[in-house]
Amino acid sequence: MIEKRETTIKSGEKVSDDLLSLLIESNLNLFKEHGKSKNGGMTTEDVIEECKLFYFAGQETTNVLLNWTIVLLSMNPSWQERAREEVRQVFGESFSPSYIHAPHTVITLQPQHGTPIILHRF
């Protein structure tokens, strides 16, 4: 996958602006400037490790964010009600989540007190 993306970038074709493409493009620019010296960029293994690092760091950040969201919502009933109202505005009064809504629903929060809260994306 990395070698295919490198070949695409070297040929001048347009690639997506994802993390892998940005790392490879930056790495190729360093190779052009410094050659294959020690200061000349990352190996393929380094690129793989950087992608893993971003993935797991993002996962950890998301976990912490969701935990704090649940804690703060459980401590602030007025925030819970505002979140519920927003869900009602987007999905309607008789909204009952199911797998049909999965593309729009990120997570359902079950606070200790009160009704479940459905966080969604647009």
TrEMBL record:
It comes from the Eukaryota. InterPro entries: Cyt_P450 (IPR001128), Cyt_P450_E_grp-I (IPR002401), Cyt_P450_sf (IPR036396), Cytochrome_P450_Monooxygen (IPR050665). This is Secologanin synthase. The lineage of its organism: Eukaryota, Viridiplantae, Streptophyta, Embryophyta, Tracheophyta. It comes from Platanthera guangdongensis. It is found in: Membrane. Keywords: Heme, Iron, Membrane, Metal-binding, Monooxygenase, Oxidoreductase, Transmembrane, Transmembrane helix. Belongs to the cytochrome P450 family. The keyword Transferase does not apply. The gene is CYP72A1.
